[in-house]
């Protein structure tokens, strides 16, 4: 994996439990995450899914699945999600800081039996906040522009 990837999908939902709607372009804002998304003002304003990790989930379940079943806002190819916590990403003209992982919710097994378990082991995705508003679109380069500081430990 490299220091940059590609935005391969954008999705949002208008209300709780509504189907995810894919779009080609969207605005990322500090107040609402992905503009028009119901969860943008919540605890995890923007959610990210790795295309490679989603492929692992599909392989484990033995069926192809729409990535929007995960209910994430952004699908990204080419970045090591295990190393992104605390990093700042640039997508289009927007900047996002990755804040943590997103645990799978009970909706996953309602959609596909076994999906919650398959999303375990760090494959459920990440969440981020918008630090610089901007427009994003499918095909944008996703670049790590600031790396999280590595925690240091020492003995006294």
Topology:
Layout (H helix, E strand, L loop, with lengths): L3 E9 L8 E3 L1 E5 L3 E2 L11 E5 H11 L12 E4 L10 E4 L2 E8 L5 H5 L3 H4 L7 E7 L1 E4 L3 E6 L10
Parallel strand pairs: 5-6
Antiparallel strand pairs: 1-2, 1-6, 1-11, 3-4, 3-10, 5-9, 7-8, 7-11, 8-9
Q: How does this structure look, described?
A:
The chain is 13% helix and 37% strand. The protein has 156 residues and is mainly β. The protein has a single domain (4-146), classed as M1 Pyruvate Kinase, Domain 3. Strands 1-6-5-9-8-7-11 form a 7-stranded mixed beta barrel.
Summarize the structure.
This protein has 156 residues and is mainly beta. The protein has helices spanning 51-61, 107-111, 115-118, and strands at 4-12, 21-23, 25-29, 33-34, 46-50, 74-77, 88-91, 94-101, 126-132, 134-137, 141-146.
Essential attributes:
three-stranded antiparallel sheet, seven-stranded mixed β-barrel, 156 residues, 3 helices, M1 Pyruvate Kinase, Domain 3, disordered C terminus, mainly beta
Main β-sheet, spatial strand arrangement: 1-6-5-9-8-7-11
Number of domains: 1
The CATH superfamily bears the name: PK beta-barrel domain-like
Oligomeric state as shown: single chain
| Number of helical segments with 4 or more residues | 3
Order of helices and strands: EEEEEHEEEHHEEE
CATH architecture: Beta Barrel
| CATH level-3 fold name | M1 Pyruvate Kinase, Domain 3
The Rg value, from CA coordinates, equals 15 Å
**Mean pLDDT over the full residue set:** 89
Morphology call: globular
Tell me the helix content. 10-25%
Main sheet characteristics: 7 strands, mixed, barrel
């Amino acid at each position: 994996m490299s220091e940059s990837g590609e935005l391969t999908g954008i999705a949002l939902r208008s209300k709780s439990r509504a189907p995810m709607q894919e779009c080609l372009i969207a605005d990322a804002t500090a107040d609402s995450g992905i503009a028009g998304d119901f969860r943008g003002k919540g605890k995890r304003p923007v959610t990210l899914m790795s295309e490679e990790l989603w492929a692992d989930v599909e392989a484990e379940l033995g069926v192809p699945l729409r990535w929007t079943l995960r209910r994430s806002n952004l699908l990204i190819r080419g970045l090591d999600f295990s190393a992104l916590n605390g990093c700042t990403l640039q997508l289009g003209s927007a900047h996002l800081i990755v804040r943590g992982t997103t645990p799978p919710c009970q909706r996953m097994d309602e959609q596909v039996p076994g999906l919650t378990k398959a999303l375990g082991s760090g494959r459920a995705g990440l969440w981020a906040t918008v630090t610089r508003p901007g427009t994003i679109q499918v095909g944008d380069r996703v670049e790590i522009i600031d790396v999280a500081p590595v925690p240091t430990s020492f003995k006294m």
